Amino acid sequence: MTTQALKTQTQGAKAAVADFADEALDKVAVARDAAVSGLKTARDAVGSGLETVDTTTRAFVEDHPLTALGIALGAGFLIGRWITRR
Fold this sequence. Notes:
It is built from two helices and no strands. It has helices at 3-63, 65-85.
């Protein structure tokens, strides 16, 4: 095998590796964009869900303050018992 043939074969291999790397980077970029889009959608959904829970909780506390206080005291007592048992 001549030196020129070896150089040609090496250049072909380099080109194939470069093409493979470009394709892999393109696939990674597409996957990254899809992941970012999915995370933004999930964040928006969770954010609106938390706002709904916050609004509902505040309305319940305003409408039933003593019941809310009783629930808070009961939950605090149960959490305290659970922590001291460990």
